[in-house]
Amino acid sequence: MSVNSVQHERTADNTEDNETAPLLARAAETRTKGASFISSVFNLMNAIMGSGILGLAYAMSSTGIIGFCILLVIVSSLAAYSIHLLLKLCNQTDINSYEDLGSRALQKPGKVLVALAILIQNMGAMSSYLFILKSELPAAISSFAGSDSTGVAWYEDGRLLLILATVCIVLPLSLLPKIGFLGYTSSLAFFFMLYFAIVVVIKKWSIPCPLQHNVTTFSSTYQISNSSDSECTPKLFVISSKSVYAIPTMAFSFLCHTAVLPIYCELDRPSKTRMQNVTNVSISLSFLVYLISALFGYLTFYANVDSELLLSYDAYLPWDVMVITVRLAILLSVLLTVPLILFPSRKAMILLLQGVQPFSWTIHTIVTLIILSVVLLMAIFVPDIKNVFGVVGSTTSTCLLFIFPGVFYLKISSQSFRSRDSIGAGFLVVFGLIVGVFSLTVIFITWGQRV
After folding, report:
1. Contact of 215 with 221, CB cutoff 8 Å
2. Residue from 114, 53, 98 nearest 399 by CA
3. Measured between alpha carbons, how far is 338 from 332 in angstroms, rounded to an integer?
4. For 113-172, what is each residue's pLDDT tens digit?
5. How far is it, in rounded angstroms, from Cα 252 to Cα 398?
6. Dist. CA 297–CA 72, nearest whole Å
7. Residues 59, 336: Cα–Cα separation, whole Å
8. Is the pLDDT of residue 329 over 80?
9. What 8-state DSSP symbol labels residue 215?
10. What is the CA 218 to chain-centroid distance, rounded?
């Protein structure tokens, strides 16, 4: 590297944090003090952590402990690096939304692509949340009702309960023009996830292995093959057709990029370094919770772990108090999160349909009903949550997490293509394309073999 390039790089590093973007300066003028560092960490963690945590134990059973850890480190590190590129672009362009970055990089097609990816990604996330409601709400109600029936009572019909919860709770909250007050309650989501991880660790010693043959719960009888002692030995590396779901599930679990720029704008004393530290702490803590819950969930059920981890506990500990409380915590988190996720989805759909327009109650209501109807149908008829994680994770998640940040940086940044970040951006694009195309192809092939 030449002396001039070294001096230029050092100068850029020294001035990067001193030159706050104009959009951040304007935001600072309108408030006496922005969000604290800790508050921003929790906000970003709430954006990161969601239903993906329930599918990571299944991902570990499909890849092995060491294989899973390697992949989780790679995905989380690349997620942090792609946010680093977005923050650099934010400072350079005075842009505070993902869609506008797409417009700056690729004109109108870029804005449409980003809006479409956000819409599909968030609808996939909402369908996974509603899938959890469908599978867990009957268990929660039955546990409080003390019922030991086998699917006779109306409240043991997950589809009916899902429709009622969507119409009575999710829809009214989603129709509100502003839903800022739910942001306060969403801060509980991290503690719900942390409690979930703690329960998974504790219950490792409550379910002996080899697992039982037939397990009767309040709603059904699980036919589970007798586990041999060999199946109670953890696998370090596993390669199978199921392994293809691992990286998409992880990408789904670490996607928070649409929330990064708004959090950056609200940060007290905003700078790229300060926001990058927020990102690193948030991703590191999420990584730790994800790893603990996946590891102990896998070590409890091994190859018999369900693609939705709570269902595995339903089979063996249906009346356990801690399992019941953690189920309620997850359900509460889901009910409060779905309306929050719907708001950017609705914004993206309205942008696709008619562009930027003044607020209209008619459009607001129609688009809300369309999105919720599609998401509800997906949650009702999709047979397995891993299908949601696999398809959405291998398409829109890889685009928003890897491909778009890399492409936008290469198109917008004035740095040489030989610079470190430009090379890193190119690697992100290539990695995202390989993962997305390969994963989606294998998933479709697997589906075709089942038909």
Report:
1. yes
2. 114
3. 10
4. 998 888 888 888 888 888 888 887 887 777 776 655 555 677 778 888 889 989 988 898
5. 8
6. 16
7. 26
8. yes
9. E
10. 30
Q: What is the DSSP string of 69-84?
A: HHHHHHHHHHHHHHHH
Residues, the chain, total?
451
Residue 45 and residue 436: Cα distance in Å, rounded?
A: 25
* Distance between CA atoms of residues 26 and 49, nearest Å: 30
Q: In whole angstroms, give the CA distance from residue 236 to residue 9.
A: 42
The two tokens of residue 10 are 């050092």
Q: Say if residues 389 and 404 touch (Cβ distance below 8 Å).
A: no
Nearest-angstrom CA–CA distance, 334 and 49 = 11
Cβ atoms of 320 and 341 within 8 Å: the answer is: no
First to last CA, the chain: 57
Interacting residues of 328 by C-beta distance below 8 A, sequence separation 6+: 140
Phi-psi domain of 94 (left: phi exceeds 0; alpha: psi -120 through 50; beta: other): left
Structure token digits, residue 140: 């929660």
Output the CA torsion 254→255→259→264 (10° steps): 60
Alpha carbons within 13 A on the beta-carbon side of 197: 22
Q: Residues 9-20: pLDDT tens digits?
A: 444 444 444 444
What was the pLDDT predicted at 327?
A: 83
State whether residue 181 is helix, strand or coil.
coil
Give the rounded percent of residues in the chain with a pLDDT score beyond 90: 19
Mean pLDDT score, 278-290: 92
Mean pLDDT of 2-10: 44
Q: Are 201 and 292 in contact (CB under 8 A)?
A: yes
Q: Which pLDDT does position 13 carry in this prediction? A: 45
pLDDT of 408 reads 93
pLDDT for residue 61 is more than 80: yes
Average pLDDT in the chain: 79
Q: Which residues pair with 267 in a beta bridge?
A: 35
CA nearest 190: which of 299, 82, 290, 93? 290
Pairing of strands 214-216, 221-223: antiparallel
